[in-house]
Specification:
120 residues, mainly beta, 7-stranded mixed β-sheet, 4-stranded antiparallel β-sheet, 11 strands, 5% helix
Length: 120
């Protein structure tokens, strides 16, 4: 079983930066991919809301479909912690950001989520 703990959310001004962290613990060797979704009220956590994900074994990073995110957000990994550096933040980045881990076998694990609010 993998446990995920997110940190780093909060309030930022437009144009500012935040760095989210997702610390994985437990059976991290079971992780296939780890990533971030963002979810606004009423939305589901599906591929449309994927921010980025990383393949645990080789460090390959894939960003979601939002071109605006690709230009401003950067995912990185240091040991068992994955970071999401968010720069040039916009009010539309306001959402709850959820970290998840997909194991090689078994169900997805979710973190508790962290709120990001960007003021205009």
């Amino acid at each position: 079983q993998v446990q995920l703990v997110e940190s780093g959310g909060g309030l930022a001004q437009t144009g500012g930066s935040l760095r989210l962290a997702c610390a994985a613990s437990g059976r991290t060797s079971d992780i296939h991919t780890l990533g971030w979704f963002r979810q606004e009220p009423g939305e589901s956590r599906d591929e449309a809301n994927l921010v980025a994900r990383i393949t645990w074994s080789n460090g390959r990073i894939d960003y979601g479909h939002d071109d605006s995110v690709k230009d401003r957000f950067t995912m990185s990994k240091d040991k068992d912690t994955v970071y999401l550096q968010m720069d040039r933040l916009k009010p539309e980045d306001t959402a709850r950001y959820h970290c998840y881990a997909d194991p090689h076998n078994g169900p997805r694990t979710w973190g508790q989520g962290t709120q990001v609010t960007v003021s205009s």
